[in-house]
Amino acid sequence: MNMQVVYDVLGENAWSYIAGTFVVLWTIVWLYRDGLEIEGIADKYVFVTGCDSGFGNLLCKNLDRRGFHVLAGCLTEKGADDLKRVTGPYLKTVLLDVSNQDSIQKAMEWTTKEVGDAGLWGVVNNAGRSLPMGPSEWMKVEDFHSTLDVNMNGVIGVTMTFLPLVKKARGRIVNVASVLGRVAANGGGYCISKFAVEAFSDCLRRDINYFGINVCIIEPGFFKTAVTSLEPLEKELQRLWNQLSPEVQASYGDKYLDKYIKVQRLIMNAICDTDISKVTGCMEHALTAAHPRARYSPGWDAKLLWIPLSYMPSCVVDIGLKLVLPRPSKSV
C-alpha cells in the first residue's frame, strides 16, 4: 500500500476519533450542566397564571410539593377554592383576568405585599385560550381580538407589570407558546398569538439578560386539556359557520363543515398526549435549573413532527396541510 494512502487513512481515522470524542464529552458536560439545580427553593416565590385547570393547575401542585411559595392566578373563585383544597399553606391564590390590565395591576400589588424584599423568582405566563379557531375567512375581527387579548396582550401585560419584582430577585420568566407558534396550521388568533409570544420572549431575553434574568419558552405539542377539548371546538366551528353569509357558505359547500370537524377529531384523537406532566416538567426545569434552556418542546409530536416541519420550505408545509384539510366544493 502506498505510504501516502496509509497516512491519509490514519489521518481520517484520527479526525473521526477526535470528533467522536468531542461529541461524547460535549454530551456529558451538557447533561451534567442541565441537571444542576438552584438552591434555596423554600425562600423563592413563583407567580403562575391560568391555574384553574390544565398545565397551570398541575404546575402549582408540583411547585407546592417542592417547597416553593406559589402564588396562583385563577380566573374563577371555584378554580381558586379547588386548588387551595389540595395544596399546602404556602400556596395562595388571587383572582386574575389577564385580558384586563386593572386585574393584572391589582394582582401585582397583592404579590408585592406577599413577596416583600425577596422579589419574585418566577413568573409563568400559562393562561391562554384556543377559541375561536377555524378557517380564517370564517372569523370576524372581534374573534381574532378575543384570543389575542388573552394569549398575546395578557402575556405582555403580566410580564411587563411584574418585571420589576422579577428583576429584584434576578429570576425567571417562563412563557407558554406552542408548536403552533412555529407552524401556523389553523386560522383565527391562536397561531398569531403564539408566534407573538415567541417573538416577544426572544426580544425580552436579549434585552434583559444583562440583569441575570432568564426568559424561557415552552412550546408544547398537542395535549389533552380544556384547550384541545373537542366539544367546545366543534360548537365554536358551528357558530362560525352559522355567522357566514349564504354566499360564503355556498363557496365552501354544505358538506365542508362536517368534513372539517371529522379532520379535527382525527387529528386530536391521533396525536393528543394525555400525560400533561411532560409539559409541567419542562416548566419546573425552567424554574429550578441552574442553567435553564431558552426553549422546551414537550410532546412526541412537537419533537418529531411540528419542530422539524417548522424548518421546511413553506411550499412543503403548504402541501402537507393541503393533504390533511378538506377542500371547498368550489372556488368563487
TrEMBL record:
<keyword id="KW-1133">Transmembrane helix</keyword>
<comment type="similarity">
    <text>Belongs to the short-chain dehydrogenases/reductases (SDR) family.</text>
</comment>
<dbReference type="InterPro" id="IPR036291">
    <property type="entry name" value="NAD(P)-bd_dom_sf"/>
</dbReference>
<protein>
    <recommendedName>
        <fullName>Retinol dehydrogenase 5 (11-cis/9-cis)</fullName>
    </recommendedName>
</protein>
<dbReference type="Pfam" id="PF00106">
    <property type="entry name" value="adh_short"/>
</dbReference>
<dbReference type="GO" id="GO:0001523">
    <property type="term" value="P:retinoid metabolic process"/>
</dbReference>
<keyword id="KW-0812">Transmembrane</keyword>
<feature type="transmembrane region" description="Helical">
    <location>
        <begin position="14"/>
        <end position="32"/>
    </location>
</feature>
<keyword id="KW-0560">Oxidoreductase</keyword>
<dbReference type="InterPro" id="IPR002347">
    <property type="entry name" value="SDR_fam"/>
</dbReference>
<keyword id="KW-0472">Membrane</keyword>
<dbReference type="GO" id="GO:0004745">
    <property type="term" value="F:all-trans-retinol dehydrogenase (NAD+) activity"/>
</dbReference>
<dbReference type="InterPro" id="IPR020904">
    <property type="entry name" value="Sc_DH/Rdtase_CS"/>
</dbReference>
<dbReference type="GO" id="GO:0008202">
    <property type="term" value="P:steroid metabolic process"/>
</dbReference>
